[in-house]
Amino acid sequence: MKIKVLCIGDIVGRPGRHILSQHLATVVKDRNIDCVIANAENAAGGSGLTPQIYEKLMRYGVNLIVLGDHAYRKREIIPILESQRNIVRPANLSPYSAGRDYALYEASGGIRIAAVSLIGRIFMKPADCPYAKIDSVLSRLNHEADIIFIDMHAEATSEKNAMGYYLDGKVSCVFGTHTHVMTADEKILPGGTAYITDLGMTGSHDSVLGRKKESVIKSFRTQMPFSFDIATEDVRISGIEVTVDSRTKKAEKIERIQISEDNSENINYDSDDGKPEYYNSF
Fold this sequence. Notes:
The protein is α/β, with parallel strands linked by helices and 282 residues long. It has helices at 13-30, 51-60, 78-83, 130-141, 157-166, 213-222; strands at residues 2-8, 10-11, 35-39, 64-66, 87-88, 103-106, 112-119, 147-153, 173-177, 187-188, 194-196, 201-204, 235-245, 251-260.
C-alpha cells in the first residue's frame, strides 16, 4: 500500500496558521494525503504552542505535531504533551521532561505512522545524545508503528546530514527543521529513507525567518534588544510530500512543496496570542 505523508515546516505565528486554515484541507484532498505532520513550535506568537492553537491545528487537518527547542515556551501546553499521543517534544531532552518520545497516528487501512523529534547539539542548548536516544526509541517503536518519520530539529546542516545517513534504512524519512529556509537537497538515500536538510517555514517569506526584517536588522546592527515581531507579507506553506511503501517501509518519492497565500486578500493578521515574550530570539 502506498502511503502519502505531508510534512510541513515550522509554522510561524498567526500568518502561518491562517494559510493552513485556508489551504491545508484542499492540499490533503487534491494530493490524496494520508497523514500530515507539522512542526508547530513557533505557532503561538512566534514561539511555543498553546492548547487552543493545538486544537486549531487539529481542526485544520494536522495529524501529528512535532516540537523543538521552544517546546516549553508556553507552559500551558504541558498537559497536552502529557495526555495526547499525537504531539511530541524532542525525544533527547532530559528523561524527566514532560511529554512523549514519539507520536502516533493511524491512517487509512490501519497503517500506523509515527513521528519522532530529535534536537541537535551544535549551537543549541544542551541535550542528550540524539543517536543513543533514537536507537532506544526505535527498539520500542518498531513494534508499534509501520512507518516512522524523524524531525531532526537542528542548527547545523552537518548534524542533519549525519542523522539522515545514520538512520538510512531504519526509518522512512528524516527531515530537518529549525532554520526556516527550505533546502533543495531532497533525495532518497541508498537504504530507502527520504531526506531533506530543511523543510522551510510556513509563514511570511518577506521576513527574516518569519519575523519583521526591520527589527531584526536593527538588532543585528546595534546589538541591542528589539522585539522580533511576526511578519505578515508573502505567506507560504513550505514542506515535502513523501510516498512510502507500507510493506517495505521504504520511501519511493519525495517532493518539495510551496503554496502561496492569495496576496489580493485583505487579511488582518493582528495576533490573537499576544506580542512575542522574548527579544533577539528566533
